[in-house]
Specification:
single chain; about 300 residues; 2 domains; 6-stranded parallel beta sheet; about 25% helix; globular; binds NADP nicotinamide-adenine-dinucleotide phosphate
Length: about 300
């Protein structure tokens, strides 16, 4: 099969569009013909070698954290899927990923694709949606009527987080670059703060919860706009110093796990139209290195960049 593979850590040039052996599904796995595969920030960070301490990859490997396609074969012990099923799938960073024509996955790594979403659209929802859910619902535990600040509202996870927080009844403020301000307002944010034009600390006060997708100085500035007892949930992004105790707030990492119940939940919300998929750009599988280059350069916002495999 055609796949994108790298045999050493490094820049986007280590990615080869090449022929590799087809994966062979285990007895309890399905074989999926991939139609669309995501390129996420974690893909280039793992490929660069900067996350070796967290994700010890066995090289050579195929990048790609999630995607969507059609089941083309099932192992003899599979009772959860049939040939022809349209499914979404996740892979972990330490496994062979989705940037390939075929991928083998087990029961807990696939979910039915909502019929009203294309393969590309579904690909933008799976992992990013689970991250949004874990951050807002399970970590920050936001409630209707609360004020929530989303740092990085124009990205893949941020764009879904704005929509999810509104759906949960929160009043939503979000930061983004000024070129994306109208876009983030269109997602439903009540207040949009362009970080290149103004300081959100000048506009906000008594915020109940923050979901931080950026880190660094942004994270540290957020303490000052929160009410005492508020919570700041964060994903691993730029490093920051934890000053939460000085401000009387809780600083809690959103620990991401692609649980099947959450994948099903966010896909269901997308199927209902509550979460609208955000496709930043589509590129052919052969252009995976270019997708990594764009992602790494910070040139991609307004959703996910997706590789069209078929
Ligand atoms: N397990 C984990 O902890 C975990 C899991 C998934 C993702 N992550 C991390 O979470 C972060 C977000 O992931 P993602 O997939 O949503 O990334 P993404 O799609 O690349 O979005 C990132 C967004 O950050 C915004 N941004 C960049 N610099 C900013 C700044 N100084 N202030 C405010 N916003 C800024 C950009 O928006 P503008 O163009 O508007 O600036 C961009 O759209 C990434 O760092 C990723 O590696 C961690």
């Amino acid at each position: 099969m055609k796949a994108v593979q790298y045999a050493r850590y490094g820049g986007p040039d280590v990615l080869d569009y090449t022929d590799i052996a087809d994966p062979v599904p285990a007895d309890d796995e399905v074989l999926i013909e991939v139609h669309a595969a995501s390129v996420a920030p974690g893909d280039w960070k793992v490929r660069s070698g900067m996350l070796q301490h967290l994700f010890p990859v066995v090289l050579p490997t195929v990048p790609g954290r999630d995607g969507a396609g059609v089941v083309v074969a099932v192992g003899p012990k599979v009772d959860y899927a049939e040939v022809g099923d349209e499914v979404c799938f996740v892979t972990q960073h330490v496994e062979q990923g989705g940037a390939a024509e075929l991928v083998a996955r087990g029961r807990h790594d696939i979910a039915p694709k909502p019929a009203n979403l294309s393969f590309t659209e579904a690909t933008t929802i799976i992992h990013a949606g689970v991250c949004a859910w874990i951050g807002l619902v399970e970590t920050a535990r936001i409630e209707a009527g609360q004020t929530v600040l989303i740092l990085g509202g124009s990205g893949s996870i941020g764009s879904l987080s704005v929509q999810l927080a509104k759906h949960l009844g929160a009043t939503v403020a979000a930061t983004c670059h000024s070129r994306n301000a109208d876009y983030v307002a269109g997602l439903g944010a009540d207040t949009v703060i362009a970080y290149d034009r103004e300081n959100f600390a000048d506009r906000l006060t008594e915020v109940d919860a923050v979901f931080d997708l950026v880190g660094g100085a942004m994270h540290e500035a957020a303490y000052g706009v929160m009410r005492k007892g508020g919570v700041i949930a964060w994903l691993i992004a730029k490093p920051f110093e934890d000053h939460s105790a000085d401000f009387g707030v809780r600083d809690v990492q959103a620990v991401i796990e692609d649980r099947p119940d959450l994948t099903a939940k966010v896909l269901d919300l997308a199927g209902q139209g509550v979460l609208r998929p955000q496709v930043a750009r589509e590129l052919p599988l052969a252009d995976c290195a270019e997708a990594h280059r764009l992602m790494e350069a910070g040139a991609i916002s307004r959703g996910r960049i997706v590789l069209k495999v078929r």
